[in-house]
Amino acid sequence: MRILPDDAGFLHEWRLQEDGSWQAHVTWVEVGGAAYRAGLNERDEWLPADRVEPIPGEDYSRVPRTRAAPDQP
To answer: Which of 19, 24, 28, 55 has the most CB atoms around its CB within 10 Å?
Structure first.
């Protein structure tokens, strides 16, 4: 899964919000600073669906789709 604008990661789940919008649960490793001195930051976040984009040729049909509980952000 592409994470816009220029990262890539793993899509774990889609979640439908009460307002009808979708979120994607994604994880990725972010590299900070110049590559030879970069720190690696593990990221694990729910992002709005418009922040992710499928990678052509990948099959996402088995990614779980759930509904958000009323108290989830």
So the answer is: 24
